[in-house]
């Protein structure tokens, strides 16, 4: 082997070694600076806990020894879910399980629900999981002003009312080390045909979470935001009834996970001290390339993934734009054919 080759090999291995060491240091840094995440014996308030992701999260909380309150509108579903959640308890005699019926789009109802929960459990909320939300996809011009207002109302207003009140209470009671978990979506990172209103609401959640992560350090309150991809839930089945075919085709690239898989991955991210949590590779690509000034989960890996996304998303975006225009042409043709017939 010539000296030139030796120098080249040593350089390549030094660079790769350097990257590996930097990645390990970053991993160590995240773990050492992570706020303690333990829910045992704490009052955990889970909105949307009667089905789908919220129920899976509440069941995991029960397994971890928490006192769990679930909130939603339909009482029969809350009752059934609470039994399933109780069945997961690790110390059933010591843990409190309650449900509260409330429509979180109403400020008054949100306040009442919180007070009722605190009264039933006999202690303030220390862990907040804001899971309630929905998706009502459709072509923008076919959506009504009610559809567009409703999505912000439940996904954004229904979240911020409760979070605002809980934070005020935590600060007044000088409770340290609380955690607030927001639920955004893969669609909290990028916009997609058929999801205009939904994306706006999930971007809003990301903005709220990012701002509060910074601001609530003042009171030692920890903020996280989970960005799930497709989850097989009753909500997902419902949204598919109005989802345009083009949207289904584009998002078909995402395999989807069960609520239990998502919850498990979310808790892993919480324990690691991540701010922006993702549980599938596609959402990770979007997280890394959209991260702005969000904290990295691993500065080296995130930068590498961001580089891959930066390149891969160019052809993908061109393909999406092309598919949308082709879809329009097809629709136009089928309309004029119906007219001719
Ligand atoms: N499923 C998916 O593919 C994805 C979902 N997400 C997000 O995850 C979260 C959970 O989704 P998923 O489990 O699919 O949803 P589901 O529709 O299956 O469950 C939603 C839960 O929220 C409750 N809820 C809805 N509206 C209100 C309201 N106005 N007041 C109080 N509770 C309400 C529902 O109960 P009730 O109707 O009785 O009130 C139910 O418990 C949502 O924020 C969603 O946007 C993010 C990415 C992907
Ligand atoms: C080389 C690059 C390839 C990139 C492929 C990208 C594929 C797009 C995946 C879109 C996934 C959307 C999940 C939406 C989840 C959600 O929030 C809704 N179900 C509403 O509840």
UniProtKB/TrEMBL annotation:
Which residue ranges does UniProt annotate as crossing the membrane? 6-25, 178-198, 299-320
Q: What is its EC number?
A: 1.1.1.102
One molecular function GO term is:
3-dehydrosphinganine reductase activity
Cellular location(s): Endoplasmic reticulum
This protein's GO CC annotations = endoplasmic reticulum membrane
What does this chain do?
Catalyzes the reduction of 3'-oxosphinganine (3-ketodihydrosphingosine/KDS) to sphinganine (dihydrosphingosine/DHS), the second step of de novo sphingolipid biosynthesis.
Name used for this protein in its record: 3-dehydrosphinganine reductase
Q: What organism is listed for this UniProt entry?
A: Coemansia erecta
For this protein's source organism, the top of the classification is: Eukaryota, Fungi, Fungi incertae sedis, Zoopagomycota, Kickxellomycotina
């Amino acid at each position: 082997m010539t000296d030139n080759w030796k120098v080249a090999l040593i350089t390549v291995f030094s660079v790769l070694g350097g990257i590996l060491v930097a990645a390990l240091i970053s991993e160590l840094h995240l773990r050492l600076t992570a706020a303690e995440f333990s829910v045992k014996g704490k009052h955990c308030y889970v909105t949307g806990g009667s089905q789908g992701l919220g129920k899976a999260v509440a069941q995991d909380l029960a397994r971890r020894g928490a006192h769990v309150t679930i909130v939603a509108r339909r009482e029969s579903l809350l009752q059934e879910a609470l039994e399933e959640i109780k069945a997961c308890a690790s110390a059933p005699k010591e843990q409190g399980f309650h449900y509260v019926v409330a429509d979180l789009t109403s400020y008054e109802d949100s306040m009442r629900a919180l007070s009722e929960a605190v009264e039933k459990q006999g202690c303030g909320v220390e862990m907040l999981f804001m899971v309630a939300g929905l998706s009502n996809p459709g072509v923008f011009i076919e959506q009504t002003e009610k559809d567009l207002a409703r999505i912000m109302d439940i996904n954004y207003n229904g979240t911020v009312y409760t979070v605002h009140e809980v934070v005020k209470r935590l600060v007044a009671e000088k409770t340290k080390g609380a955690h607030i978990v927001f639920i955004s979506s893969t669609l909290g990172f990028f916009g997609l045909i058929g999801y205009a209103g939904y994306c706006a609401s999930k971007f809003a959640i990301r903005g709220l979470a990012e701002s509060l992560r910074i601001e609530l350090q003042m009171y030692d309150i920890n903020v996280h935001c989970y960005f799930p991809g497709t989850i097989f839930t009753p909500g997902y089945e419902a949204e598919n009834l109005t989802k345009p075919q083009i949207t289904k085709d584009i998002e078909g690239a995402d395999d989807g996970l069960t609520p239990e898989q998502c919850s498990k991955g979310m808790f892993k991210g919480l324990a690691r001290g991540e701010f922006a949590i993702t549980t599938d590779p596609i959402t990770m690509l979007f997280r890394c390339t959209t991260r702005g000034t969000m904290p990295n989960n691993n500065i080296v890996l995130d930068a590498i993934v961001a580089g891959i996304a930066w390149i891969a998303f160019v052809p993908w975006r061109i393909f999406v734009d092309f598919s949308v225009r082709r879809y329009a042409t097809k629709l136009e043709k089928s309309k004029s054919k119906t007219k001719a017939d």
